[in-house]
From TrEMBL:
Family annotation (PANTHER family): HAD SUPERFAMILY MEMBERS CMAS AND KDSC, N-ACYLNEURAMINATE CYTIDYLYLTRANSFERASE-RELATED
Protein's organism: hydrothermal vent metagenome
Molecular function, one GO term: N-acylneuraminate cytidylyltransferase activity
Keyword presence, rRNA-binding: no
Lineage, uppermost ranks: unclassified sequences, metagenomes, ecological metagenomes
Keyword Transferase: yes
Keywords tagged on the record: Nucleotidyltransferase, Transferase
Protein name: N-acylneuraminate cytidylyltransferase
Top-level EC class as recorded in UniProt: transferase
Stored Gene3D superfamilies: Spore Coat Polysaccharide Biosynthesis Protein SpsA, Chain A
EC number of the protein: 2.7.7.43
Length: 238
């Protein structure tokens, strides 16, 4: 069985929703839901939290994540990317003699994702012998009904060719990234230096009710409603 590193990325700064990674959600800090799902997953060999923030680190450790180091300030600013933090973590662990075949990137902003989603994505990757598996969900609306607008807001060319009289139910299903699970082959990731998807990358389908991605206050309120209506998903440990 290949080695899988569960990597939770949670920086302290957030412009649109300050301190969002530790805001309360259904009785726990937002981060806690992802840590608990990762800890309950059967196929993760280690669950590491990568953060620049000591309070976030303390909360992550409280719920079972390991925080072997804090990420440096240059990886905590608005211009730093998730890729920067992933590569830094793999490099730092590698310097300590710790190497993994795959990294499973988990964002705290997907609190409704459960352990079975993580394990399901890993099992799909193994079945397909893939380099990457990324979680997706169905879109709320067909992308054919979306378009850009000019400065004068004219709708003259809003409809795409051949779409005007097409019913939405007659359009093919479309999918979007839901931010819940990203799995990458570590060697290929380090060699390429990007999180692109190639011909050996596959989608892992997740239901809408577990695909809320929190970026704004409205997203947080929606997640609260989902928890209230559906209840927290069941994380079954092995």
């Amino acid at each position: 069985m290949p080695g899988f590193l569960g990597l939770i990325l949670a920086r302290g700064g957030s412009k649109r929703l300050p301190r969002k990674n530790i805001l309360p959600l259904a009785g726990k800090p937002l981060l806690a839901w992802t840590v608990e799902a990762a800890k309950a997953a059967q196929h993760l060999d280690r669950v590491v939290l990568c953060t620049d923030d000591q309070e976030i680190a303390d909360i992550g450790q409280q719920y079972g994540a390991e925080v072997p180091f804090l990420r440096p300030p240059e990886l905590a600013g608005d211009t730093a990317t998730s890729l920067d933090s992933v590569l830094y973590t793999l490099k730092t662990l590698g310097e300590k003699g710790e190497h993994y075949d795959y990294v499973v990137i988990l964002q705290p902003t997907s609190p409704l994702r459960i352990a079975q989603d993580i394990d399901g994505a890993i099992e799909q990757l193994l079945e397909k012998q893939a380099d990457a598996v990324i979680s997706v969900c169905e879109t709320d609306h067909p992308p054919e009904w979306s378009n850009t607008l000019p400065d004068d807001l004219s709708m003259a060319h809003f409809y795409r060719p051949g779409i005007r009289n097409t019913r939405s139910q007659d359009l093919p299903k479309s999918y979007q990234l839901n931010g819940a699970v990203y799995i990458y082959n570590c060697t290929r990731l380090i060699e390429s230096g990007n999180l692109d998807m190639d011909d050996n990358s596959y989608a892992y389908l997740m239901p809408k009710e577990r695909s809320v991605d929190i970026d704004t206050r409205i997203d947080l309120e929606i997640a609260q409603l989902f928890f209230k209506h559906f209840g927290p998903g069941e994380n079954k440990e092995s």
